[in-house]
Amino acid sequence: MDSSPLIEPARLAEITKRPEVSLQDLLQALEWDQDPDTAERVSVELKYSGYVAKDRAAVARIRQLEQYPIPPDLDYSGLRSLSYESREKLQAIRPQSLGQASRVPGVSPSDIQNLVSEIARRSSCFT
Fold first, then answer.
1. 80, 76, 59, 68 alpha-carbon torsion, rounded to 10°
2. Who has greater pLDDT, 126 or 59?
3. 72 and 42 in one domain?
4. Is 109:102 a contact under the CB 8 Å cutoff?
5. What are the CB-based long-range contacts (under 8 Å, 24+) for 86-91?
6. 65 against 125, higher pLDDT
7. Can you tell me the mean pLDDT for 27-53?
């Protein structure tokens, strides 16, 4: 199948992840009769499972950020750990949660991390 030879036993799912290997061809070689549409769907799911898992993890992180509120009286202009652009945008928009703040255009992931640190530091000062 124009792919490098197997050195040791491998699962069918791992072989199918190779770009030059199609699940349908493998099933045909094994004389395993399968619906072509089903084989194609399974093949796509196997080949792109890493990307799908990464996207699901990103969605889970965003959902987690939605649970963390930002104090409504937070003065972003005093947060020197954030970029100037982020301070301006966050001050103007006043997001209610870290999830909302992470979706503000121009606010980088490092700014969100710094914002988390600032909120945690400030809340521990008052407890």
1. 110
2. 59
3. no
4. yes
5. 86/111, 90/115
6. 65
7. 79
Higher pLDDT among residues 6 and 92, named by residue? 92
Domain residues for the domain of 107 are: 68-125
pTM: predicted TM-score of the whole model, two decimal places: 0.54
CB 81 within 8 A of CB 114: yes
**Does any domain span residue 105?**
yes
Give domain status of residue 84, yes or no.
yes
Greater model confidence, 60 or 86: 86
82 and 117 co-located in one domain: yes
Q: What does the block give as tokens for 19?
A: 């770009």
Instruction: Identify the sign of the CA torsion 57, 58, 63, 64.
Output: positive
Q: Which residue spans within the chain are E strands per DSSP? A: none
Give the tokens for residue 63: 């959902």
Helix (H) / strand (E) containing 105: none
Separation between Cα atoms, residue 60 and residue 21, nearest integer Å: 32
Asked if the structure places residue 29 within a domain, the reply is: yes
- State the total domains in the chain: 2
Are 72 and 118 part of one and the same domain? yes
